[in-house]
Design brief:
Blueprint (H helix, E strand, L loop, with lengths): L17 E2 L6 E6 L10 E9 L3 H12 L6 E3 L8 E9 L16 E9 L10 E9 L4 H14 L1 E2 L12 H10 L8 H25 L11 E4 L6 E2 L5 H9 L3 E7 L9 H10 L4 H9 L5 E4 L1 E2 L2 E9 L2 E9 L4 H6 L15
């Protein structure tokens, strides 16, 4: 199932290229954005992993520590086909910290351990630092122009194909669930399917704004946020003339809806626009309401921080950048190379 049939911000790339020719071409380092306590009932383990998804490593850590897999948490999922660093949180009240030098899992190593008072929950991180290498670039001149455009205008904050599962199966199952063709009881599957459905709706709204060239044009009733912040406010008619320059300077960001059981958050023209975008998603909207999913907002366009690049040779590009929590590096790469010619399957965890 094709799940990324959405608009490009800078036009469809002319160049093909290869991402993740080897795991070392995709390096991710998690940044929680806060200092750990150094004490408490939770054992914090920072792991560098290659060749495994986050859930599998969490299960292996639980087995080693002789605790339930449900007692292990993390801030976010990391790619399997990559070299990634992230924290795992093991709830172990009244127990000694295990000797993780004896934990053996090929492709993994423990970098650090400490203690923490509070449980680490999904989304509790500042973001991720990325180092990517794209090989066999067919049109370097086009890629260079696109990199400059990304610095200036950012990229669509699309949820990447990882969110939708291999061949879009999470979205397929979400549609079957919404159509009452199946019953989903497993907690993880329910979460994945709901997330896939909501992500697809968000992506469509952002894509339609790009198609209408309003991704950075403030509409009456738009929900805006200070760039990098989570809270948002609604644009009133009296404020429109002052808000647009603040969006142009990247002080403010226009958001798009993550629909749930409640109002979208926009008003007037922006609400009419988003409502029209969601006309064909009535079954997904009904599923969000029946499952009491909380509505939310998310930046429509994102600019990578500390974004710089280096040509290792005429056809090999190295990228370094930081993205806030929830943003997908593969959505940035989508604006650089034509993924129809790239190895898209390697993007899926």
């Amino acid at each position: 199932m094709k799940v990324m049939n959405v608009q490009y911000l800078h036009g469809k790339p002319l160049s093909s290229g290869k991402l993740k020719s080897q795991p070392e071409d995709f390096i991710v380092k998690e940044d929680l954005g806060f200092e750990l306590d150094g004490e408490g009932e939770h054992v914090m383990v920072r792991v560098e992993k290659t060749g495994y998804n986050t859930l599998f490593v969490a299960e292996q850590l639980a087995k080693f520590a002789k605790i339930s897999a449900r007692a292990v948490s993390y801030a976010g999922l990391k790619d399997r086909n990559a070299v990634t660093e992230q924290w795992f949180c093991l709830q172990m009240p009244g127990k000694e910290t295990p000797d993780f030098s004896k934990w053996m899992l090929e492709g993994c190593r423990v970098i650090a351990t400490t203690r923490q008072k509070r449980k680490l929950r999904i989304g509790t991180l500042k973001g991720n630092h990325f180092e990517l290498i794209i090989r066999d670039i067919s049109a370097p001149e086009d890629v260079e122009l696109r990199l400059e455009k990304i610095v200036e205008g950012g990229v669509p904050n699309y949820f990447g194909e990882q969110r939708f599962g291999r061949n879009g199966q999470n979205l397929v199952q979400a549609q079957r669930w919404a159509n009452q063709e199946i019953t989903v009881r497993e907690r993880n599957k329910r979460s994945f399917y709901l997330s896939a459905a909501r992500s697809a709706m968000f992506n469509h709204i952002v894509s339609e704004r790009i198609a209408n060239q309003t991704e950075n044009k403030v509409l009456l009733g738009d929900a805006l946020q200070l760039t990098g912040r989570g809270s948002w406010f609604v644009a009133t008619e009296e404020e429109l003339s002052t808000l647009q320059p603040r969006v142009d300077s990247s002080e403010l960001t226009i958001t798009a809806a993550l629909p749930g059981d409640g109002e979208l958050g926009t008003q007037f023209d922006a609400l009419n626009f988003e409502t029209k975008c969601l006309e064909n998603y009535n079954t997904f909207i009904a599923l969000m309401k029946s499952e009491r999913v909380s509505p939310a907002r998310r930046a429509a366009i994102v600019k990578p921080q500390n974004f710089h690049w280096q040509w290792l040779d005429a056809n090999t590009l190295k990228l370094n950048f930081f993205l806030s929590s929830g943003c997908f590096a593969t959505s940035l790469v989508r604006e650089i190379i034509n993924q129809e010619s790239a190895d898209v399957e390697n993007f899926i965890e």
